[in-house]
Specification:
This protein has one domain. The chain is built from 9 helices and no strands. The chain has helices at residues 3-18, 22-34, 40-66, 70-92, 117-123, 128-141, 148-176, 183-199, 202-206. The radius of gyration is 18 Å and the shape is globular. It is found in: Cell membrane.
């Protein structure tokens, strides 16, 4: 893989990772509700989970799935259902207290909690933007006869370039925290983020 291809792939990684989508919407909401430290598992679940997804697609998963196009429909509707559930949780739950290392009332489902590492990693497989990014990346910047080392290089490049973009959204949410100390403002913000998640379903469902 030559330098020009790596540069182009890196630019694609930054642009596609920093633009709004389900992951970034949820990361920003996590930054607002939980701060940067408590959002770390969510952030790294997104980045390492997507890196693993890239490796799988680059090593041949995409060609296998092309033989079974109905599987994409299953992923599309599973992803829609899960994102609607997350949107409902975000809009209806009251935020966890900001004081203390852990959320109060752990048995109360009404309290919003940070997304964990494994949940964020698994979400990539039903995230429509993640599939578009993975397939586009591997089909555009990887030669047909590329080996596992080139696939790993491209996936690693995407992780290195994408992680700061994800952290930016968490940091942006953290920066907004001061403006959202009022419970009503925070509730309005969470409802707005929930509506943004629902709106992000339109491109996926219309296809």
């Amino acid at each position: 893989m030559n330098t020009e291809t790596l540069f182009a792939a890196g630019l694609f990684a930054v642009v596609s990772s920093v633009t709004p989508g389900p992951n970034n919407t949820m990361l920003m909401a996590s930054g607002v509700n939980f701060g940067f430290r408590r959002s770390q598992r969510h952030l790294w679940g997104v980045n390492l989970g997507f890196t693993f997804m890239l490796l799988c697609v680059g090593l041949g998963l995409h060609s296998v799935l092309d033989r079974f196009p109905q599987f994409y429909d299953v992923l599309r509707y599973l992803g829609s259902a899960y994102m609607l559930w997350i949107a409902w949780k975000l809009a209806s739950a009251r935020p966890a207290p900001t004081s203390g290392a852990t959320a109060a009332e752990p048995g109360n489902p009404a309290i919003l909690r940070p997304m964990g590492f494994w949940a964020a990693a698994a979400f990539q497989w039903i995230n429509p933007k993640a599939w578009v990014m993975a397939v586009t990346c591997m089909s555009t910047y990887l030669s047909p006869n590329a080996g596992a080392a080139q696939v790993a290089l491209l996936a690693g490049l995407f992780m290195v370039m994408g992680a700061p973009c994800s952290a930016f959204w968490v940091g942006f949410g953290l920066a907004m925290r001061g403006l959202l100390q009022d419970p009503l403002r925070l509730r309005i913000f969470n409802i707005t983020m929930a509506l943004a998640l629902v709106a992000s379903l339109y491109p996926m469902l219309k296809g």
